[in-house]
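Handout, section 4.2: multi-component inputs.
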Amino acid sequence: MLSGRRILLIISGGIAAYKSLDLIRRLRERGGAVRCIVTKAGAEFVTPLAVATLSRDKVFGDLFSLTDESEIGHIRLARDADLVVVAPATADLIARMALGLASDLASTVLLATDRPILIAPAMNYVMWAHPATQANVKTLAGRGVRMLGPVQGELAEGETGMGRMSEPLDIVAAIEAFFSGTGRLKGRRALVTSGPTHEPIDPVRYIANRSSGRQGHAIAAALAALGADTMLVTGPTVQLDPAGVEIKRIETAEQMLGACRDALPVDVAVCAAAVADWRVADPRNQKIKKNGKPGDAAPILRLAENPDILASLSAAGKLRPRLVIGFAAETEDVVAHAVAKRKKKGCDWILANDVSVAAGTFGGDDNAVHLIDGKGVDSWPRLTKDEVARRLAARIADYLAAPA
Ligand code: CTP
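Output:
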């Protein structure tokens, strides 16, 4: 049920807009309060009168309408909602969201809102597959925008392909799932490690790895979205800071360990960082120079083993988090190696993933993981890293809700 939930529905200009009328009705049937913005193009497909009648509220459309502004104002419109839903989300509106344009009321509200956003894309399948749209969708996902669909099916032009808007009932289910999850981790503290570490060789050079931080950052965002007080300890990445998460930036494994220890006590720790196993034992204070003489021997780096953060959190005695979760990055015999790693590190759960080049996990957008706990192996389908993160956060919430 959606009793008392305030949903701001943005209807942009695609033929799927007619389904949004049904969506409004179904949201209201479940007790949701629906306020709508219809874009200029959207109003070519559904009349503001029909939208107003079904939503039983005033319909907003024009950024420069003085009456709208004096009554409510676009900033309040953007914030007076528990969730902003864009259905249908056209390629054009998605592109404007990705660019941060504020060229009409809908895009301005989407830029001005600090509320969670769910979009249901709908467009021709070629437009959906276009690299520009895919890049925009990726940008939005990186900012924590939730996405439902599009789905495969018959499209308006008589063609068939990936581009149909999800059905209103599926959108309602996603909205209900969103609301049932929020607040489940309220009062809990979570610690997440993410990204690579950089181990200095000298002031300008370092040893690193290919981790992008995408999965760890998504996990921190998903835990925070469920209400957890979340600390993200991250190595250098280009990921955007997830909303509502406290961030501690570090470079080396030793600094990561220190920051994690400082964050204790927490209820759950998720170690998603690709920590360098070794550091240079004696990093130089000055840049190592070539002598310039042909045949000069290349420097030899002596390495020292880095502390294992996951193992050390798992063995933190009284400060041990109730749930310690690690990842196992493997390139062969993924599950077998991960089962052994779980034992060796003393953590509760381990998420095993294939990081061989063929799997495209490092730096990629999706991930196929196996969750291994004391009871067995649960193999998840290939999901986007955001979906893996949400599923994991929901599992964590279930676990922490059960008696210790
Ligand atoms: N990990 C850690 N500190 C380290 C090394 C790894 O916290 N110094 C954590 C990672 O965050 C991950 C898990 O341990 O959750 C396993 O990382 P992985 O690289 O798969 O394993 P390693 O311990 O490095 O073992 P190996 O490289 O031999 O497979």
